[in-house]
Task: inverse folding
């Protein structure tokens, strides 16, 4: 029988391992640690029996409780839909979007639903607060390319602009330079003319020379006075609000290369009630008419 090797200093049995004269003590694990360890082992066995645990080729073990968080979430969503059913019905049945804004209770429901929808679907382009980014309109101001009434906003959300929806609008800003409609000097002169419309510093002689070009190529969309045409999505050129930027370089680039940004259609992706709620929310951001 092998004698136990006891460490002289501590009086504790060693494991028999030794490195450079240093021996490994065979200290037992603390009892409290062992108890917790055994409890976790027992708990894992119980969990394995009761709850979904082991994956298989075509599925997984369901456990005796047949528990499913996915099913629980589905039940909660169904319960929430049932709770909102009456408000949703009233939202759809409202005689007009204005009637929704005039009903405090219905407006509160629409704002709550619309705010959630905006965060999920619109904030990526228009910003969390609707402040917009270059190429993505600010929804808080009072300048609307396609109109800012409740009905206009609903139409924009429903069919989009330059989208793949059959009822969308497809007008674009032509690339006058790239398509060789105007020369570089002519594009530069028209840039000065556009700058003059908004009261920005410009070359007066160049702007004056571009007046006939503006009449020929631009008035059909932007109007003779530069105030634009919402039916075509042609922006007002006389204010200080610019979708892509109002500095000389950006205006020149817009005239040279054109613009054709797309607002996707949400018809089919959002329900009728969701589109109504989202329209009311956008209108209430501060810039609605």
Result:
């Amino acid at each position: 029988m092998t004698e136990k090797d006891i460490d002289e200093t501590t009086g504790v049995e060693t494991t028999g391992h030794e490195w450079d004269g240093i021996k490994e003590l065979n200290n037992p694990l603390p009892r409290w640690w062992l108890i917790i360890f055994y409890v976790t082992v027992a708990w894992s066995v119980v969990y394995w029996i009761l709850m979904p645990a082991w994956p298989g080729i075509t599925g997984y073990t369901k456990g005796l409780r047949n528990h499913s968080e996915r099913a629980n979430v589905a039940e909660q969503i169904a319960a929430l839909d049932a709770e909102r059913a009456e408000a949703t019905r009233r939202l759809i049945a409202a005689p007009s979007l204005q009637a929704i804004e005039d009903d405090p209770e219905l407006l509160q429901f629409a704002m709550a639903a619309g705010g959630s929808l905006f965060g999920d679907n619109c904030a990526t382009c228009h910003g969390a607060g609707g402040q917009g980014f270059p190429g993505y309109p600010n929804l808080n101001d009072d300048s609307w390319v396609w109109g800012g009434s409740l009905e206009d906003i609903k139409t924009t959300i429903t069919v989009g602009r330059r989208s793949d929806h059959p009822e969308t609008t497809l007008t674009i800003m032509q690339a006058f330079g790239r398509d060789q409609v105007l020369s570089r000097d002519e594009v530069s002169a028209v840039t000065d003319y556009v700058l003059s419309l908004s009261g920005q510093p410009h070359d007066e002689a160049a702007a004056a020379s571009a007046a006939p070009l503006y009449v020929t190529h631009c008035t059909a969309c932007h109007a003779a006075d530069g105030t634009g045409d919402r039916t075509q999505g042609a922006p007002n050129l006389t204010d200080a609000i610019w979708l892509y930027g109002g500095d000389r370089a950006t205006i020149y680039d817009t005239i040279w290369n054109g613009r054709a940004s797309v607002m996707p259609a949400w018809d089919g992706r959002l329900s009728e009630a969701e589109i109504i709620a989202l329209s009311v929310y956008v209108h209430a951001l501060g810039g609605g008419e």
About this structure: DSSP finds eleven helices and two strands in the chain. The first strand starts at residue 14 and ends at 19.
